[in-house]
């Protein structure tokens, strides 16, 4: 019986004009979003890969220099585009793309797309994820709002029930039918996504990427299931089709438009983050207590000097077999990096707290769950951007450290002229950032995962517990 | 007249008694109040940051002043003089935060090379930037149309389905008159609530009342009139309430969500933000060149000659403070060489912005947002005019210190008092606001024109 209902729903839906119009529109938007997103992904990826290559080449071919001059000359790190980021832009447009790596300074990533876009960017970006998260639920609402209420109003529900089918059977049948019809819109888009991923990676599809894609599919499947079953349940319970439509639209507006914004902003209001000025000022204050490699005047410097002299058993820096300036600079670098990391981590934890309010709201709001999971899987989430920033800082530190160490060993104190062989530059490895593993993405999004599980469970319960209406 | 009053009265009674309306009004008030609170707290925070930096600037200048002795060189003071150039939020910024959370709104400026100072960004939580601000502009642009739809989806169809339409029409009043009266009533009601919220915001954020308020209200009124036009069009199709709700929401999605995001997609693929490799490489490379030639006496002399040819006032006397003068000359040429690259990217962005603005004609929501941002001076143009201010003030500082340094004089306390200080001057509201309102008016005329023509067409049918 369930199958018959499902088939009937499926065939009538395919013939339904509403389905054809709205479904066609959404399929069209999916296509546009896919092709547009892929085109911009391709051009960004090409430009950044090229920029990274160029940065490496200028680094390697900067010519013979004093190692510290080379550290000042520095290099650039460009955030690589994740392979699936054309599917979901996530926060990519709002994070910096390019970090200047130099001695003594931890620079912020600069040039976010948002700063270089029209202000319309605040309306959102048309990506596949955007269509799937925001518009497909609405399509579901429009298709399913009268699925059972209409049968009630036409008195066909009584007929069905009198044949001994239970209400939940009818509901399950409807859910199956709707899901099947929906596949006509979603599956082609996802197939095309897969093809584009293959094109983007030039066929070298990694297991990690495959798993990311599969989990993304699963998350969206669950999300749509939640909306379909919720719509059918509300349609069964509502007094009239009109009421069902209004409540479902209300739910959609609340979950997809109002709550995401409200929860994110409430998070930011509860956990106040420092401004750029306060952040830099706090670092500066802490650094003043430390030594600055270029200003050999304060206590730490003296202590370091004493320690190094004792280590080499000599009386003055001139007698040292190594370059004391390099040692002092390295100590300064170490200290300032430590201070920077401390403040950076503190700010990070504030942002994390801010975001956790929205993340926890996933328990009430499946939209949030799927949004966070989708971004995470696409490698366009905040955590991935953060990992890049941390990687770049670590790379910077190691670059400066290598050069300082070289300077320490190959020249004497006070010698800022001696040039190192250009081969030293190759000792610094390529900048090769890799996205965090899928496990860490899942671990970060445990709330979203839990929420989706809970929602599936809740929906199954709600559908199964639908009571037969009074037949009299 | 009597009919109008009567219809208004019964519409009001009917609405007040409806559960949907009670819930909707409650929700709207809640959301509106939160938006006002949120906007205020965000902008207050920016004001607090500016206040803190101003105090910091004063403190730093005070300590610098105490270091001045009889033989202080001007370059010593110049190198340590950081002046705050700020872009404080306008009164209205709390109502429409716009792009203020993305762009930096303050910069410490030194007389030294400008190119090495202006590439700063405000740090922010990207997830928050992605979700955007829950300000009053958001409520007016996103939520109010939904309220209008909830009030109007069964404008006439409700009467028809309830069987009261024929009763109503038995009075000496036509269906179109009823439609217009009902639409006018709903427009007045929505605008009244919006007016209440805007006035409340003006009071809570202690905004000085000026003509901006009128422009703001006009934009709101037009935006709502646009939605009433959409209601008229859908209503004239004479379909059932479910169909109306369905199509009105469809219109909302297209106008508020789909069109603006499609414009973005177009802009993102047609004008992809380049990584600015040439600019960043040039900033680094050109600077290194300066240092590489630092000890080249011949080059140093030629550079000084070049500067003197460009600015006769900066003629170098090689006997005194020679290295610094060389650096000053070089940084001047450095900025000059980099300027075209900066201009290139700024023009690219402005071009993108203007294409975006032109395409906004396709969506009344996008238009209204731009009007609000222009009125609140939180739009992209405002950021660029801030950058212009930075450039202007930097030039002032540069002239001041360069002159002192090239005059070979010591820096006195009286000179210290004359160090330029940045005074923020309120800028007039940009033309974008007027243009936007005009375009909004055109959109209103277009939808109403279609609605009115449809009525005639349907009558002929």
Could you walk me through the main structural features you see in this protein, from its secondary elements to its overall organization?
The complex is a heterodimer of chains A (472) and B (461). Chain A is mainly alpha-helical and 472 residues long. Chain A has one domain. In chain A, strand 2 and strand 3 form a beta hairpin. In chain A, helix 1 crosses helix 7 and helix 8 runs parallel beside helix 16. The longest helix of chain A has 44 residues. Chain A is elongated and about 105 Å long. In chain B, helix 5 runs antiparallel to helix 14 and helix 11 runs antiparallel to helix 13. The model of chain B has no long low-confidence stretch (mean pLDDT 88). Chain B has 461 residues and is mainly α.
Features:
heterodimer; A: 472 residues; mainly alpha; three-stranded antiparallel β-sheet; B: 461 residues; 2 strands; elongated
Question: How is this structure best summarized?
Answer:
Chain A has 472 residues and is mainly alpha-helical. Chain A has 16 helices and three strands.
Backbone CA Rg of chain A: 30 Å
Strand content of chain B: under 5%
Count of individual beta strands of chain A = 3
Arithmetic mean pLDDT of chain B? 88
Shape of chain A: elongated
Largest sheet of chain A: 3 strands, antiparallel
Number of helices of chain B: 17
Q: What is the percentage of strand-forming residues of chain A? A: under 5%
Shape of chain B: elongated
The oligomeric state is heterodimer
Element-level helix/strand string of chain A = HHHEEEHHHHHHHHHHHHH
Poorly predicted residue ranges of chain B: none
Order of helices and strands of chain B: HHHEEHHHHHHHHHHHHHH
Terminal CA distance of chain B: 30 Å
CA-atom Rg of chain B in angstroms: 30 Å
How many β strands of chain B by DSSP?
2
| Total domains of chain B | 1
Q: So how many helices of chain A?
A: 16
Task: Give the strand order of the largest sheet of chain B, numbering strands 1, 2, ... along the chain.
Answer: 1-2
Strand order, main sheet of chain A: write it out. Answer: 1-2-3
Protein chain pair with the most extensive contact, residues per chain: A-B, 88 and 86 residues
